[in-house]
Design brief:
Layout: H1 2-26, E1 29-37, H2 44-64, E2 66-68, E3 71-81, H3 86-98, E4 103-106, H4 110-123, E5 126-129, E6 145-147, H5 152-166, E7 171-176, H6 180-195, E8 199-205, H7 214-221, E9 227-231, H8 234-246, E10 252-255, H9 263-268, E11 275-279, H10 290-301, H11 309-326, H12 331-337, E12 343-345, E13 348-350, E14 362-369, E15 372-380
Parallel strand pairs: 1-3, 1-4, 4-5, 5-6, 7-8, 7-9, 9-10, 10-11
Antiparallel strand pairs: 2-3, 11-14, 12-13, 14-15
Helix pairs in contact: 2-11, 3-4, 5-6, 11-12
């Protein structure tokens, strides 16, 4: 009787064994890639735009199927909010390290990327910033810091050259938001503007939470500048431009990529016509596959691209390209493969110099005719 029971159980046991073996055959390795940027606060729209670019890349890679060294791999995007704050940024950087991500796309702000970069470097994890432009980010001697945009050492001079050569500015006022990004961009602009023979008639500082710029602008108005340069984000650059117009200042306000967004149109109002701004990369309209990307992005997220979603999208693909070349999903192997990157992405060819900067930097200048962002010039640096 006991033997019969044992015999009856044999097919069940065999089936369980086969199911288990099948599960092992089809088992997928889950590999985590981190994204971090400001998802709350005044520039949350920029952080969400960056996150969306990274998410679209992860979803497309998973849908296509990813094989690394003969094993099926599924990517998981682990996203964190740094609120655009350096202290929060280092805390969430450690959180991503603890989550065992193999690479990080972020941070958005230079002032957050710079302190957070030490944490990733100590952990041996590659960090690719899609939008941090302060030169100091890649000048720390870390082997883990990369970016897919040009730097302020290129962006600042491009804005200065446009101001002095095209706008014929002789007297320039400079205002920055006292962040690593805003001040860094303003410093680079100032050096080039002076070299071009311009006189800096005022150098003022505000902060990235300010809303009222009338006192600074009244002081600047008295100096009668031909051009005002502002180093900061759209959340402050838009209102500053609007308030300058309200005070009767008709000078062009030149600004960097942090303020070169569709959002600045809303924040500056009619005064947006006075803005000339730059992006530290190729314009979406000039990317061969830009229009197709925009369609896919808008279909997925029901919103237009702000600025750097194409750059976060490519940053994910660059990490995956390093995985493929390393034939490994290990963070240290991915990091070791990064210097040899030569990837043709949405934003163009991506290859890095010894610091982790792009070998070919492009600066695009824009104006806002009829409250619409339009390409003004493209400068290869």
């Amino acid at each position: 009787m006991k033997l019969n029971k044992f015999v009856k159980l044999l097919p069940v046991a065999a089936a369980i064994a086969l199911m288990s073996a099948g599960a092992n055959v089809n088992a997928q390795e889950v590999v985590k890639i981190g994204h971090v940027g400001p998802l709350t606060g005044a520039i949350a729209h920029l952080g969400k735009d960056n996150e969306n670019g990274a998410r679209l890349a992860v979803e497309e890679i998973n849908a296509a199927g990813l094989m690394i060294d003969g094993k099926k791999v599924t990517l998981e995007l682990v996203t964190e909010d740094d609120a655009g704050d350096p202290k929060t940024g280092t805390a969430v950087a450690q959180k991503l390290v603890d989550a065992k991500v193999v690479g990080v796309v972020g941070h958005l702000n230079s002032g957050v990327s710079i302190p957070a970069s030490k944490i990733y470097n100590d952990a041996g994890i590659v960090e690719i910033s899609p939008s941090s432009t302060n030169p100091q980010y890649t000048l720390q001697g870390f082997k883990s810091t990369y970016r897919v945009v040009a730097t302020d050492a290129q962006q600042g001079p491009a804005l200065a050259t446009y101001s002095t050569k095209t706008l014929k500015a002789k007297n320039i006022a400079i205002i920055d938001d006292a962040t690593a990004y805003g001040k860094g961009l303003a410093d680079e602009f100032e050096k080039k503007a002076k070299a071009d023979g311009a006189t800096i008639v005022a150098r003022e500082a505000t902060n990235d939470k300010a809303t009222d710029f009338k006192a600074i602008l009244t002081k600047v108005k008295g100096k009668k500048p031909d051009v005002i340069m502002y180093g900061g984000m759209d959340a402050t650059g838009g209102p500053l431009t609007k308030q300058a117009s309200e005070l009767g200042i008709q000078a062009k306000v030149v600004q960097g990529d942090g303020a070169c967004t569709d959002k600045v149109i809303e924040l500056a109002g009619d005064a947006v016509k006075n803005i000339v701004c730059s992006e530290a990369g190729m314009a979406l309209a000039n990317m061969p596959k830009g229009a197709d990307f925009a369609k896919r992005y808008e279909a997925r997220f029901k919103a237009p691209i702000q600025v750097y979603a194409p750059f976060t999208y490519d940053a994910v693909y660059v990490i995956v390209d390093a995985m493929k070349r390393a034939k490994s999903t290990k963070a240290d192997a991915i990091l070791a493969a990064m210097p040899a990157t030569n990837y043709d992405g949405l934003i163009g060819n991506i290859a890095f110099d010894s610091k982790g900067d792009m070998k070919q930097g492009v600066i695009t200048l824009y104006q806002f005719g009829n409250k619409k962002k339009e390409v003004l010039d493209v400068m290869k640096m």
